[in-house]
Request: fold
Amino acid sequence: QVQLVESGGGLVQAGGSLRLSCVGSGSSFNWMGWYRQAPGKQRELVALVSNLGSRNYVDSVKGRFTISTIDAENTIYLQMNDLKPEDTAVYFCNAYASGINYWGQGTQVTVSS
Reply:
């Protein structure tokens, strides 16, 4: 049974940092990453990493966010620096294996101005 467990969200002032964690279990994953969804907006890809270490980021977070490689515990991290109010959203962990996408429950990130 595949499970993704997220942690690390919270409230932070603009310019601050947060580190999100996603612990996967039940499979080896080809891709893992983070999506986010703000109220009234579509869910968007934030960052992806493959099991070979390839990375992709949405333009708005390049230079500020860093996604880790997938470690031996099937865990990924998203280091978020220089946070801005527009980063406020629910962040969802995502993982892909054997043709199926899996999702975490989401963790709230709120950035105050």
In short: The first strand starts at residue 3 and ends at 7. The mean pLDDT is 97.
